[in-house]
Amino acid sequence: MTRSRAYTVCTVPGCPEYTTGGRCDDHRREAEQRRGSARARGYDRTHEREFRAAVLARDPICILCRTAPSRHADHYPLSRRELVEAGRNPNDPGNGRGLCARCHSAETARHQPGGWANRDGG
């Protein structure tokens, strides 16, 4: 027996569209376009070599839940965009922390444009 999902109103203020959770398809697509691709945001091979590898080597266990292996090198406390705007090196491992997939998804959803829990529409 399959369970049906309840519909709710889109989380973007003023949008009357129904969705199975979070934003409607149009607002989800708009948020992803504003966010840009990973390469457009600067996640290139230099990032993978200098930042990601060093952060995951330093933090092999997720620093938030302390139970799962780190799979993501997360920029913290400033985002990659904020580091670039401040003239700082976003590939410096000192600007990151190792997170498991679950914690990284939750943090991204709360703090990044396009994240499902970011309710300001951006």
Written account of the structure:
The protein is an alpha+beta fold and 122 residues long. The strands form two sheets. The protein has a two-stranded antiparallel sheet with strand order 1-2. The protein is 34% helix and 10% strand. The chain is globular. It is built from four helices and four strands, in the order E-E-H-H-E-H-E-H. The longest helix has 14 residues.
Please provide a brief summary of the model.
The protein has 122 residues and is α+β, with helices and mostly antiparallel strands.
Structural class, from helix and strand content? alpha+beta
Could you tell me how far the N terminus lies from the C terminus, measured between alpha carbons in angstroms?
37 Å
Specify the biggest β-sheet: 2 strands, antiparallel
Instruction: Report the C-alpha radius of gyration, rounded.
Output: 17 Å
Query: What does the overall shape look like?
Result: globular
DSSP helical segment count: 4
Helix content: 25-40%
Count the E strands: 4
What do the pLDDT scores average to? 82
Strand order of the largest sheet: 1-2
Q: Which sequence of SSEs, written as H and E, runs from N to C? A: EEHHEHEH
Q: Strand share of the residues? A: 5-15%
Low-confidence stretches: 116-122
